[in-house]
Amino acid sequence: MTERATDPADPTEHHRATDPGVVVVVAGAVYDRGRLLAARRSAPAELAGRWELPGGKLEPGESPEEALVRELREELGVEAEPGERIPGEWPLKPGYVLRVWTARLLSGVPRPLEDHDELRWLSRRELDSVDWLDQDRPAVAEAALRLPQAPADGAHD
Ligand SMILES: Nc1nc2c([nH]c(=O)n2[C@H]2C[C@H](O)[C@@H](COP(=O)(O)OP(=O)(O)OP(=O)(O)O)O2)c(=O)[nH]1
């Protein structure tokens, strides 16, 4: 069984997830050095070849942040730390909504282990260079607004 949302219409809804009507998909706007991670789906056929934010369905008893950490570990082989939720909620297919959290890589190099066949790190000006799933575009636009500045060339820590 998959965990479901209470009020898919309420963008202020952060953590309640009990409505039997809607499946919550939690995805990560994973940032590293001023770039956003994009993942190309390998399945199902109708989504294959399109790009998305990595993540997956909230499982019963999990917080969204826990789900995100689990999904990024399973799909990409990395450890990540969730940050803020990106305000908003985006309908996917009927009965599914997308919620997005920012995330920062703690360790590992992302690899397309599950559900994806290619990964790319995109700078702000490269964000339109991949064919995002239509339903992800508003979330990606919001994620872009929060893209941390890349360290300046030659900058010292
Ligand atoms: N992860 C993710 N899924 C998305 C996005 N946009 C979008 O339409 N989807 C769809 C694809 C899938 O139908 C559904 C998420 O399912 P999934 O297959 O990624 O989730 P999962 O890992 O929990 O799936 P499962 O294999 O355990 O069933 O939402 C997105 O940005 N990220």
Automatic annotation (TrEMBL):
Any one Gene Ontology molecular-function term assigned to this protein's record: hydrolase activity
Annotated source species: Streptomyces narbonensis
Biased composition (Basic and acidic residues): 1-18
Keyword Nucleotide-binding: no
SUPFAM superfamilies in UniProt: Nudix
Protein name as annotated: 8-oxo-dGTP diphosphatase
Keyword annotations from UniProtKB, A to Z: DNA damage, DNA repair, DNA replication, Hydrolase, Magnesium, Metal-binding, Mutator protein
Lineage, highest ranks first: Bacteria, Bacillati, Actinomycetota, Actinomycetes, Kitasatosporales
Membership in a protein family: Belongs to the Nudix hydrolase family.
